[in-house]
Write a structure and sequence with these properties.
The protein is of the alpha+beta class and about 290 residues long. The chain contains five helices and 18 strands. The strands form three sheets. Strands 2-3-4-1-15-18-17-16 form an eight-stranded mixed β-sheet, with helices on one face. It has an eight-stranded mixed β-sheet with strand order 6-7-8-5-11-14-13-12.
Length: about 290
């Protein structure tokens, strides 16, 4: 079992911000995410595109046409998880994705209901809605999660959509309040990665599954997931590839973290941000907002 967490170095309201991806086909991936999630495309040019929900950037796509596609065993992104505000929103999205013809996986995780697919370049994507926090079960500081079958018909019915015909479905656009709820990473060792994120960024380890660990601030079920299912024993990559470029974390106060990391040579500092890289080359920028 991983040891108890260190004292908090970031406020409980700290959360994941926008995710940055290096993509081989910028126009194609921009269209994919805008269409799939009903996001607005901001500031598109030949080098990057920013996709946002009601003005809040969620995804930055950076053109990298010469980079190779990452093998599944490479540490990096497992999936970016987009959190919708309500179960009804998830039902509207599910009908939309079904009309688009996407092949979708699913999981009822007790704390949430989630659907999964990959983008055309193999980057994992999750779209989910949380169950109310007062229905989550905690035992000895660990949140109880599972992977059961999702009641997809119930999710659709929550949106007033007939599961048999999809009658009642309407065009989908990301509702206000859509966020990146969490990010899930592939690492060489889940236990080592959990210790790094706990000790460096003050996350609590809220679920320890051995080959995977889930961590959060403020009692959430997880802001960061870590697994070694495809990447056990792998070191940090030494050559670039398409996929995760960086993840961001947003917090109202950097002071305690700045003091906590003072003197570490691997930390890049700015007036409103700290940037560092985990042992598998995943770049993390914590910004004060």
């Amino acid at each position: 079992m991983i040891a108890a967490p260190t004292p908090p170095v970031l406020p409980a309201s700290t959360h994941v911000g926008a995710v940055h991806l290096n993509v081989r086909d910028l126009p194609g991936l921009t269209h994919f995410y805008a269409d799939l999630l009903g996001l607005d495309v901001l500031w598109p040019d030949s080098t990057q595109a920013v996709l946002a929900a009601h003005g809040t950037p969620l995804l930055h796509l950076h053109a990298a046409p010469d980079l190779p596609r990452a093998p599944v065993s490479r540490p990096g992104l497992y999936h970016t998880a987009f959190l919708l505000p309500t179960r009804a929103d998830l039902g509207r999205w599910l009908a939309h994705a079904a009309r688009l013809g996407h092949r979708i996986g699913s999981g009822d995780h007790l704390v949430s209901e989630a659907f999964y697919l990959s983008d055309p370049e193999g980057n994992g994507t999750e779209v989910y809605a949380d169950r109310p926090r007062d229905t989550w079960t905690w035992r000895d500081g660990q949140v109880q999660m599972g992977t059961n079958a999702v009641d997809a018909a119930g999710v659709l019915q929550a949106a007033g959509i007939d599961p048999a015909t999809l009658d009642g479905a309407a065009p989908f656009s990301a509702p206000a309040g859509t966020t990146v709820g969490h990010i899930h990473l592939k690492v060489g060792s889940a236990a080592q990665a959990a210790r790094w994120y706990r000790d460096t960024l003050g996350l609590d380890v809220v679920a320890d599954l051995g080959s995977a660990a889930f961590l959060s601030w403020g009692g959430y079920h997880h802001h960061i997931g870590l697994n070694e299912w495809h990447s056990a024993g792998q070191p940090a990559p030494t050559t670039p590839a398409a996929g995760l470029r960086a993840l961001t974390v947003q917090t109202p106060d950097l002071n305690a973290l700045r003091a906590h990391l003072h003197g570490r040579p691997d930390v890049q500092t700015a007036p409103d941000a700290l940037t560092l890289t985990d042992p598998w080359g995943n770049r993390v920028t914590v910004t004060q907002v």
